[in-house]
Each structure stands twice: as C-alpha cells, then as structure tokens.
Amino acid sequence: MEEVLIPTVTAILGAIASFLFVINDNKKQFRHYESEAKAKASAIEHEAEHSLQEAKINIKEQEITLEKKFQIKVLELEKQKTELSLELKSLEDREKRSLKRKKELLKKERYLDTLEDKKQQEIEGVIDILEKSASMTQDEAKTHLIQQVEDQSQLELAQLIRKYEKQAHHDAKKKADYILSQAVTRYAGEFAGERLINIVNLPSDEYKGRIIGKEGRNIKSLEHLLGVDIIVDETPGVIIISNFNLYRRAIATKTIELLVEDGRIHPERIEEVHAKVKKEFEQKVLEEGEDIVVELGLLPMAEELMRLLGRMKYRASYGQNALAHTLEVAKLASIMAAEMDGDAKLALRAGLLHDIGKALTQEVGGNHVDLGVEVCRRYNEHPTVINAIYAHHGHEEPDGVESAAVCAADALSASRPGARREVLESFTRRVKEIEEIALKERGVVDAYAINAGREIRVFVNARVINDNQISVLSKKIAKEIENKVQYPGEIKVNVIREKREISYAK
After folding, report:
1. Which CATH number is 432's domain given?
2. Closest by alpha carbon to 409, among 475, 483, 353, 472?
3. Cα–Cα distance for residue pair 290/313, rounded to 1 Å
4. Residue 394 lies in a domain
5. What whole-number distance in Å separates Cα of residue 436 and Cα of residue 447?
C-alpha cells in the first residue's frame, strides 16, 4: 500500500509544482507585456506631442506668411490709391483747362455779337443819311449801301480770320511743345551704342593655342559653325569676336566662354556646345519678350510677337539698339497720347510693335515695315497698330491720336544727339548684301562676312559642288560683288568645301 501511495503523492506534488511554475511564468509574461504596453503608450504620447509641436510651428509659419502677404497687399492697394489720386488730379487739371477754354470761346463769341450789333447800327445810320441827303431812289440807295457795307464787313472779317488763325497756330505750337516737354521729362531712357566686337577673357594665354587647335582645325570649326570672325592676337588674356549680327555674335561669345570654362575644345565638343547655347538663346529671347509685355501690362500677346521682341535686343539700327529704341518710343507715345486724351494703352502697344519687322530683316530680308505689318496682321493686332507701323515711315497718314503719337515719338527717339550713326548702318547693309549674294548661288550652305567685311567665307555642299567647281564659284561670287556692292579696297572670297563621312561601330 505504501509502495502505491508514495508514487501517487509524488506525482500529485509534481503536478502542483508544475502548476505553480506555469502560473508564475504567466505572471512574468504578463508583467513583460504590461511594460511593453506602457513603453508603446509612452512612445505614442511622445510622438503625439512631437506632432502637436510641429503643427504649432506650421501654423505659426503660415500665420507669418499670411501676414507678409497681407502687408504686400496693403502696399499694393496704397500704391493703387496714390496712382488713382494722381490720375484724378490730372483729370481735374484737364477739366479746369477745358472750362477756361470754354470761357474764352464764350467771351470771343460775345465780342463777335457786339461787332455784329455795331455793324447793324452803322448800316442803319448810313441809310438814314442817304435817304435824307442823296438824290437817289430808295432801291438805288439800298443797293449802294449794301455794297459799301459788304466791302467793310469783308475787310473786318478778313482781319478777324487772320487774327484767330494766328492765335490758333500760336496755341497749337504751345500745346505741342507742352506735350513734347511732358513726354521727354517724364521718360528718360538710356542710349546704348552697339559695337561690332565682343571680347572673351581667357584664364591664360595657353587657351589661345587650344582655341586655334592643331593646324587651326578648332578655330576653323568655330568660325564655320558660329559665323563670326575670331581674332587671336598678341593682346594678353583675351580673344576678339567680330561680326555685324548681334544675335550671332552673342551666341558665339557664350559658346566660346563655355568651351573655355569646360577646357575641352575640339570640333565635336564645339558642335555640341553650340547646339546647346543656340537652344538656350531661343528660349531666352522668348522669356525676355514675355517679361517686357508683362511689365508693360500688354497681355495677351501672341507668343511669336513676344519672341520677336526678345530678338530685337540683338538688333541695331544706325548704331541704336532696336529694343531700347522700341521701348523708348512706346513709353513716349503712351505719355503723348494721354496728354492728347487718346488711348495711352493702345499707343503703348503700337509703339512697342512699330519696328517689330526689324527682328525679321536679318534672317528673311526685305522691308521692315511690310514684314511688321504682315506678322501683326497674322496675329490679329489692332488696326491702329497696323496704321502706326505704316505711318511712322510715311506709307500712310496717321488715322488717330495714337498713331500720330507713335510717329512723333519715333522721330524724337531717332533725332536726339548721338542716337544714330549712319556709318554703322551703311556698313552692316553692305556686309548683309555680300552674304546674300553668296547664299543665292547653288550648293552654298552658309556664308559669313568676316574681318570687318573684307573677307567672305562661303561653305558649300560637297555632294553638290566638286573641287573643280569651287574655283568657278568663287570667281562668280567675286564678280557679282563687284557689280552690285560699293566698297573700299578689296573683298576676299574664300570658298570652302569639306566632306564628312560618319559611321558607327556597333
């Protein structure tokens, strides 16, 4: 019995011990889970506090931003209020002048009425005298009296007309002088003369050798692609880029600057950088045109017109920058139109577009007036803009105050001392004529006048023109230049034929 009981008791005690162990282990796990839960709760609470702090910071930043915007809006409203006050004062001044003029006219009208009454009294007095003293019938006296009165009246009327005509001319001249003086004093534009060269600074004279390249291949490639004359002389640390086309010269300057900065100068890299710079300049001229239109408040305007406005920065006329001249004319015309009770905004637009055709003449050729009218009509510009383009060179009469203001502003901008130089204009015209003669020939790809117009480099298509034909072509172009262009000295015609074959190893 004892043998059976002892194992049983032992088993029971072992089971109880196991149960107690399990319970103790579960308590430990529970405490572990409890501490983990508390830790997570603490982390969540910390994260919530952090999020709350960030939210407070964001709200504060937004409050500061809104406050700044509010202040800016307040300043804008103050500015608009000031502008409106000035405009109201201007309107009041014009109204006062109008009232004064009206009073003067009424005074003159009363004076004429007085003269008329005096004339009538004299006629009646003469009739009485004639009827009493003259041995004439009443009809004869009346006829004689009428003739005498008519002669006297015509004399007085002629004198009066001459007086008021003289006064009208005097008043008109004073008014014109006033308008011009107001326009000139309220707008003072800077004059910028255009040069025929750009200078590129080099880090050292070592770069001159890199730009020239082995056997001159780099400088030949540059002059071929860029269409400019590159002068590498003994002047330390610089090279000179020469050409009459401002846009082409600006692209060339930027291309060479990037090549010098990069350090890799070879024909393939030159082509790559030139293509990139040309694309950037196309985008840049559009952005510059957009900036001008936005600044003047002339939106909407066709994108092509804005691009042409940007191109005018790289165009000169008689040594005067075309864009600077255009902006000057636009602002002067706007002021003049406002003084003459015209549409200042329309005059500003017409002045801005009056020379738009000049942005096309270097590439297309032709008269800038006709080109400007064509492109403005294509994009449905206002008829006054079209009339201003025609009128500022005398092709039409101005049809309103705005067109007349543009004509006067154009003459004012062009005639002030130093604004234009005939020598530069005639030079650029001659260089352009030389290039056009070469480009008309069959097989010519590009033609660039360089070396101040004393040489023209003509690049031909190697598949169209062979080696024997380039000699004939150079003589033909030289003969055409002799017959059609007036120039001092001589012009070198340099025809270049280059053949390239490209293959790819795959």
Report:
1. 3.30.70.1350
2. 353
3. 13
4. yes
5. 8
The answer to whether residues 407 and 447 belong to one domain is no
pLDDT in tens, 134-156: 566 666 666 766 776 666 666 66
Cis peptide before 300 (omega within 30 of 0): yes
Closest CA to 115 of 76, 75, 161: 161
One-letter identity of residue 435: E
Nearby residues of 335 by Cβ (< 8 Å), 6 or more positions away: 182, 183, 186, 187, 344
* 447 and 438 Cβ atoms separated by less than 8 Å: yes
Q: Alpha-carbon distance 32 to 26, whole Å?
A: 10
- For 27, 175, 386, the CA distances from 182, given in Å and listed in that order, are 98, 10, 26
**Residue for token digits 């003159």?**
108
Point out the domain boundary residue: 385, 420, 455.
420
In a domain, 82, yes or no: no
Same domain, residue pair 147 and 201: no
Is 113 within the bounds of a domain? no
Instruction: Report which of 427, 226, 237 is spatially closest to residue 318, judged by C-alpha positions.
Output: 427
* Number of residues in the chain: 506
Mean pLDDT of the chain: 78
Q: Which amino acid is at 265?
A: I
For residue 360, give Cα distances in angstroms to 293, 301, 371, 373, 417: 19, 18, 7, 12, 27
Instruction: Answer whether residue 247 is part of any domain.
Output: yes
> Which secondary-structure segment (H or E) carries 429?
helix 422-439
For residue 32, pLDDT over 50 is answered with: yes
Question: CA of 189: how far to CAs of 300, 328, 359, 414, in Å?
Answer: 25, 6, 21, 12
H/E run at residue 286: helix 267-296
- Give pTM, 2 decimals: 0.45
Q: Are 453 and 430 in contact (CB under 8 A)?
A: yes
3-state secondary structure of 497: strand
- Specify the number of domains making up the chain: 4
| Cα dist from 75 to 83, 85, 86, 268, whole Å | 12, 15, 17, 54
